[in-house]
Amino acid sequence: MPQHEHTPTADSSRASSIHLGNSHLHPQDAFYAHSPPRQRSLAPSDTATKQSSDGRSRSRRERDRRRGRSSSRRRRSGNALGKGQWKKLLWVKQSYPDNYTDEETFLDHLQRNPRLRPYEFWPLVADSTIIVQHVCSVIIFVCCFTAIFQERVVPQTVVGWATLGTVVGWFLLDYWQTREEAEAAETQDPPPHNGGGEDADRGSNSPVSDAASFGQPFKERHIPLAATASGRASYSHSRNPSLASVGAASSFATSPMFGPGEAHGAALPATPPHVPAWNGPPSSLSPRMQQRLSTVKSAILIYCSLLGLSPILKSLTKSTSSDSIWALSSWLMMLNVMTFDYGAGPEAKFPAPLSTNAALMASTVLASRLPSTTHVFSLTLFSIEVFGLFPVFRRHLRHHSWAGHLSLTTFLVVLASGGLSMTISGGGYLMGIAGVVLGGIVTAGSLGMTTWWLIGLQSPDAHLPCDPHQSISTSPPPSKRPAEHSGGVSGKELIVVCAVGVNVSAGLGASARSGLTFFRPATAGGFGAVAAVGRLIRLSQEQLVQAFGLQYTQTSGTLQPHIEGSASLPLQVGWNSRAVLLACELARPGFQGPRDVFEGTYGYLRLFEGPKQWNMTSSRLVLEGRRWLIAELSHKPFPAGRATHGGVEGLQELMKEETGHLKPEQIEKVTMTGSPVSARRCARPDKPDLSPNYARLCMS
Amino acid sequence: MPYNIAMVSDFFYPQPGGVESHIYQLSTKLIDRGHRVVVITHAYDNPKRSGIRYLTNRLKVYHLPHWVVYRSTTFPTVFSSFPILRQIFIREQIEIVHGHASLSNLCHEGILHARTMSLHTVFTDHSLFGFSDAASIMANKLLKFSMSDVDHVICVSHTCKENTTLRASLNPLAVSVIPNAVVPSSFQPLQPHEFKLSHHASDKGALLPPPPDPSHPVGPGDPITIIVISRLFYNKGTDLLISALPLLLERHENLRFIIAGSGPKAIDMEQTLDALPQQLVYTASGQSRVVLLGSIRHEEVRDVMVRGHLLLSTSLTEAFGTVLVEAASCGLMVVATRVGGVPEVLPSNMTVFVLPEVEDVVRGVTEAVGVLTSKAVRRDKFHDLVKNMYSWADIARRTERVYDLITGSSSAPDNEGFYDEEWMHYGQPAQPHSFALMDRLKRYFGCGIWAGKLFVIVVVIDYLIYCVLEMVYPREKIDVCKPWPAVARKRFEGEEEQSVNGTLERYGTVKQKHRRRKADEGAVNGFNDEG
C-alpha cells in the first residue's frame, strides 16, 4: 500500500493510519483483514510517547470494562508471554490452549440475517387468508356432500346456487379483464403525458393497491427478475407497487445491455391470451366476444358430457365398500389441501393439477354412494365448480379487490363453520349460528396463533464471512430533466427513473477492472442518464438501443481536468447531460446509432476501460435490476473528493478532545495510508495558490 | 495417563476421505502415546468386511453389521446399536468415546449411549454447515441434541469452531481447535532422482504434462501446470471452476490443467471443455491443455501434485482444506477461495486468496503465476515449513490434553509446559460434567420447547434400555478384552524417558520398532502405514 507522508510541526504524536476505501487486496491484506491485529488504529510503539501509551492503556481498560472482564489477566498474558496476540491461525504454534476463545475476535465475522426480511404480523395474517379460504371451500364441499347424502338438501339446490355463483363470478372476471385490456390499450397510446411507466401506473391506478385496508404492504412473493419479467408479471404485485414497477422498469431500461433475445422477452410483454395477435385473421366479433363465446361453448360441452358420464360415474366404484370410500376420499381431500398452489397469482391459468385431480377423484369416488344419477351429476358439477373454477376466481378477486377478498374470506368462514356445525350436530339454524360464532373464534385464534408461531420461529440466521467485493463505482447520473416539457412526472416515477439511472451507470462502473483513465461520472453517468431519460420519455426498446448508441458517439470526459484541478471537471458531466438529451430526442424519431455500444470491438468498455480490463459478469445483478444500488448510495460528508474523506475524518479525530486538543503546532507530521486510488488521485503536492477544484482533491 | 478410547464414526477405511484418514492417523498416534484405541464403524461391502479387523499399529476396528443408507451413513435407528455398542464398550473397558463427523449417525448414537453408560465423550466436527435451509436446520437440531451432553468438542479450524458453537449452542470454552495434519513423508516434492526417472520412463504419464524440474525456476514463458484436486460437487465450487477455466485458458497461453476427482459436475465440466474452441483446449503441438483424470486414490495424489506448480481450490465451503496443506507440502503454490477455515491454514506467502467469484479467481491465478515467474517465492522451502506446521504426533498430543481436561486427570509429562500457568485449567468446567440422569435430563430439556421434551423422552428410553440390558446381559458375563501385551506399556515408558530428554518427535527406537513390527505380523491388515 502506498504511503505518503507530509509535514506539519512539533513533537511526535501518534500517527493516524487511515484506511481509505478498498481496492483489490493483496494476499497479505486479505490475511489481516481476517485476523485484525488487536490495536488497529494505534501507531507502532516506537513513535508513541508516554501520553499516547497512557491513552492506550486507558482505552484498553475501558474496553475491558465494557466486555465485563478483568483487565489484569489480559495484561499479564500480553506481557508475560511476550509472544503477542493470539491469532486466528492454525499454522502458527501459539502459546494459548486449544480451547482458548478470544473474546474480541470470536464471531467477529458473523453476519446475522444478511438478507432476511422479517415477517410482520398483519401481512402474514393477510397471506394466510388464502389458506383459510381453501380449507373453508373444502369443508363446504364436504358439508354439502353430507347434506346431500343424508338427504337433508336436494342436490339441485346446491348445484343451482353454485352455478349461479359461478356465472356471477365469471361475469365479474370478464368485466375485470375487459377493463384491464382497455387500460392496456390506453397506455400503449403514444402521448406520454400522464406520467408513470405502464406498469407502475396501472399498479397505482387500480383500486386494489390503495384499497389495501391494512397499513402494511403485502409481503411480496417474487420480485420479478428482469429476465423473466413480463408485463403481466407486475400485475401480481399491485399491493407493492413501487417494487413491482421498479422491477418492470429495470427490464425496460436495462435490456439493451444484453443480447436482443433477452431484451425482446423483457421489453415486450408476453401478449396476454385475450389480446389478439396483431395480424390475426379478421373477425366480425371482437376478440373479447370470441373468447366469451368459446367459454360458453366449453361450459356447455362439459355440462353435456357430465350428463352423459353420470351413470358411469355412479356405478364406477359402487362395489367398493363404504369404509374404503370414506377413507380414500378423506385422504384425497387432505392431498388436495396439502398440494394446493397457494402462492399462484392471477396469471396462473389453472390450479395445481395434482391438487385439483385429487379433489375431483374424491368427488367421483363419493358420487358412487349417492342414490340417483341426478345426485351424481349435481355433485360432480359442484365439485368442478368448487375445485376447478373457484380457485381461479379467488385469485383474481384477491388481485383486483382486497376488500372483496376479505369479505369472501369472511363469507366462506361463516358458511363453512355454520355448515359444519349443522352437519355434525344435525341441528337447525340455531346450531348453525352457534357454529358460526365458534368457527369465527377458532379461525381468528388459529390465524393469530400460527402467525405468532411463525414469527417466533424465525431464528437468527447466521452467515460466515464472505465479504462482498465492492468496486469503486461512479456517482449518479446527472440529468433527468426532460420531464418538464411533457408535463411532469409522478414522484414514484421519478424514483424509478433515478434508480434505473444509478444502476446503469454504476453497473457500468462496476464492470470495469481498470483504474480511472476517463472520468467515469461523466462517461458511465451519461449512459445511466440515457436509461433514465429513455424511460422517462418512454422510448421503445429499439429507440433505447439507438439512444445508447447516439450517446456513445458523444461520450466524453477525461481525467486531465482532474489532475489539474480545473473547473471543467464537473462541466464534463454537464456536457454529457446535454448529449443525453440530444441522443434521446434523436432516437425517438428513429435516428440510427451504433448498436453494439458496450462490448463491441470499439465499444465503450474496450475503448474507455481498456481492452481486457472489464467484466460484465460481476455487475450482472445490477444491470439486470436484481440489486438496486440506489439503496446503497451514501452521501459525501465533506465537500471534497471522495478519496480524501478518510484523511479528513482522520484529521478531525485528531483534533477532537481525546487527544487533548492537539494544536497544529504540536503536530510534526501526519501520515496517511490509503488505497491506491486515493494515493494516485490525492497525493498531490501543495501549491501556493490553489484553485478550488485542485484543493478539493489535495490531501497535502 | 493412558486411556481406553473408542473412536466412533460411520466413516472409516476402506472408504477414502479426509475424516477416515484423520481417525486412522489420530488413533495410531494415540496408540503410540500409550493409549488403547479401538475404532467402531459400520460394515463395509457387507458382509465382507464385518466383524473385527486389526490395522497397522495394533489398531482394532469393529465393523458393525449395519444397513448403509446414503453416502455410507447408517440408517438412523436411535437405539438399535445400543446392545452391541455396550458390549464393545464393556469388553474394551472404554473410558472415553470419541465421535467423528456430524453427519454420522453411528457417532451420535455412540455418544448418546456412552453418556447413558456414564462414559466421557468427545466429538470432532469436520465440516461447516449453513443455518438457513431445511436440511441444515434438521442437522443442526440433531447436532444440538447430541452435543448438549458431550464433554468436549474438537473442531478442525477456528471458523469451524465458530460455526459449531453457534449451531449447537455450545460453551466456546468447551470447544477446542485442533487442526488436521498431513503425513509429510508421503507428500514430498519431486526429488531429483525421481525427476530423471520420470523423464526416462514417461510412457505411463504420456498424457499428462511432465513434472517440472524442481531445481529449475519457472521462466516467463514456461508452461505452468495448475492442479485441481477436488470432488466435483457444487459445494466444492466446481461451477466456479467451470466458469473460470475458459477465461484462464484464454488469458494465459502457457497454462495447463490437471483436474482430478469425479462427481456429479464432471459431465458439466466435460461439456464445457467440448464446447470450447480447439485452439484453447489444445496446445500448438496438439496436446490437451486440460486433462481430466477422474477420481484418483489418496496414494496417487502426491504423484499428481508434483506435476504442477499451482494448486487451485475453488471450494465454496471448507472446514479445513487438507488438500491445500498437502499441496503446499509438495511444494505447490496455492490459490484458494477465502472461505471457511481456509485462510487459517497456510501462511500468506504460500497462498493467494481469492473471493469466490469468477473474475477474482482469474485475478488470483494471474497473480500467482506472476509470483511464480518473478521467483518471489521459494517453493522448494515449502515442504520443510509445512512439515513443521502440522504433524499428527502434535495433534495426538493436543487431543490427549482434551482427554485430560475432561477426565480431570493430570497430563502426561511431555504434555506439560506448553502453556503458561494461567492456562492450566482453562476451560475446565467448574464441577465435572455430572453423569446423574437427572442432570443429563436437565441439559437435554433446555434444547428447545418441543425438541427438549422429545430429547428427554429419548434419553429416558435409552436409560431404560440400558437397565434392561444390564439385566439381560449382565456386565459380569461379558468377557473383558485383554490389553495388547506388554509392548504398549513399555513403549509408553520409553517415550516418557525420551520426552524427559527433550525430544519432541516421539518415535520408538529402532529396537522397539522392530519389536512392534513383529507383533504386527500376526495381525490382519489391509493398509500400509502411511506414518
Describe the protein.
The complex is a heterodimer of chains A (700) and B (531). Chain A has five domains: 1-32 and 637-700, no CATH class; 123-153 and 401-453, no CATH class; 155-189 and 289-399, no CATH class; 196-267, no CATH class; 482-632, no CATH class. Helix content of chain A is 55%, strand content 2%. Chain A contains 25 helices and four strands. Chain A has helices spanning 27-34, 50-66, 71-81, 121-149, 155-187, 198-205, 207-211, 241-254, 260-267, 287-316, 322-339, 353-367, 373-400, 402-425, 429-457, 491-511, 520-536, 541-554, 560-564, 568-587, 604-609, 620-623, 645-654, 676-682, 692-696, and strands spanning 3-6, 111-112, 462-463, 670-673. In chain A, the strands form two sheets. Chain A has a two-stranded antiparallel ribbon with strand order 1-4. Mean pLDDT of chain A is 69; it is low at 1-82, 190-281 and 460-486. Chain B is of the alpha/beta class and 531 residues long. Chain B folds into two domains: 4-181 and 393-517, 3-Layer(aba) Sandwich (Rossmann fold); 184-389, Glycogen Phosphorylase B (Rossmann fold), CATH 3.40.50. Chain B has helices at residues 18-32, 82-91, 105-116, 134-147, 158-168, 192-200, 238-251, 266-275, 278-281, 298-305, 322-329, 342-345, 358-373, 379-389, 392-407, 437-445, 449-472, 487-501, 510-521; strands at residues 4-8, 36-42, 51-55, 59-64, 68-70, 73-74, 96-100, 120-125, 152-155, 175-177, 224-229, 255-260, 290-294, 310-313, 333-337, 351-354. In chain B, helix 11 (322-329) links the parallel strand 14 and strand 15 (333-337). In chain B, helix 1 packs across helix 15 and helix 2 packs across helix 3. The radius of gyration of chain B is 25 Å and the shape is elongated. The two termini of chain B are 24 Å apart. The interface between A and B is large, with 40 and 57 residues.
